[in-house]
């Protein structure tokens, strides 16, 4: 796996674990959602400055991000992990009967 692939995989895992959307990450980084999407799809590359900003956002060391998804997830502080039942965008989970859990 190339370094670029490791960064994209680590970021995808962090987004999922934190329950964040690309739009929420983009707002935190001060870029557009389209820029995050292009970087995640491989159309554009994550720069070292981007990686540093992402690592700071998630409260991990940039080396953990560069090491790949396993190391990034191990380093993610418990307070940054989504709560069970919490979905991206902070939307409440909806039960099968239509009620909110």
Strand content: under 5%
Number of helices: 6
Helix content: 55-70%
- Total beta strands: 0
Give the low-pLDDT segments. 91-95
Q: Which structural class do you get from the secondary structure elements? A: mainly alpha
Spatial separation of the terminal alpha carbons = 39 Å
Order of helices and strands: HHHHHH
- Taking Cα atoms only, what radius of gyration do you get, to the nearest Å? 14 Å
Gross morphology: globular
Overall mean pLDDT score?
Answer: 87
Describe this structure in words.
The chain is mainly α. It is 56% helix and 0% strand.
Question: Top keywords for this entry?
Answer:
101 residues; mainly alpha; 6 helices; globular
Structure described in brief:
This protein has 101 residues and is an all-alpha fold. The chain has helices spanning 3-18, 22-29, 33-41, 48-58, 62-67, 69-75.
List the helices and strands and how they pair.
Layout: H1 3-18, H2 22-29, H3 33-41, H4 48-58, H5 62-67, H6 69-75
